[in-house]
Amino acid sequence: MGKFSNYKELHRDRFGLQQKDFVHAENLARRSKFYSWDVQNHTHKDIVQLFVIWSGSGILTTTNGRKELHAPFIVFIPTNTLHGFRFKEDSDGDLYSINASFFEKELAQPPLNDHILKNLRHIEFQDSPHWQEIHFLNSRIQTELSDINKNQQALTALLFLILLQLYRSTESTNKTSENLDQYTSQVQHFKRLVRSTIKNVSRVQDYASRMDISHVHLNRICHQVEHKNALQIIHELLIEETKEYLINSNFTIAEIAYLFHFKNPAHFTRLFKKIAGVTPKTFKQNTEH
Description:
The chain has about 290 residues and is of the alpha+beta class. Helices cover about 55% and strands about 20% of the residues.
């Protein structure tokens, strides 16, 4: 607790921001070296913080546990929110400590006030189109802060735009997650339909029609969830079922082929080898040992 108390006191001395000092910026690397890259759990009563990290990685500790983050990423921390960090020594970025009163008055505006500004947020931006814009805005903020006649309106606008990008990225991530849940459910439905007709499988278009979606959309969601197209999934389910017959029945390979409505045993053998890597005969022999 000693280290925690000292950190709070030091932080209060350095960031006891007045309204005229509405934002304080620090380089992450210089700041983290002061704390040996390890900032223990603490809260801020009158300060909102925004971390814009462009290199390295770190572990964020919150009441929900520990989260490893890899650059580039942003962390937004509201007032009275328990948090701590352990950064890798190759990490770098900028930290903005913002006067809470100023923040509520100037930055907590729609659409941000009802979405991201009430809770701690973190989001990584690998391969994200939003990061380039955030990096540009962050550079503009640094330029404004270095000007002895820094413009409060310009800084407010730039900070708002960074937070807006965080909001959009969060919304995009949530939408992607919701879509993936929906797609997963649809693919599971598709698989159930295939299994229900496994001895006489239909065309992809027919399954799509029964699901009230297009075959193009069915292929798209299969790729999204399974990284395979719909026909590949049909073939895999079909071959899995034929394996059961090869293992647990006395049917010949030819009889199994006709049972599952293959054109002929040769067609069955080709597809089986393509999916399973061996012929039906070899598979059956291997399971008999």
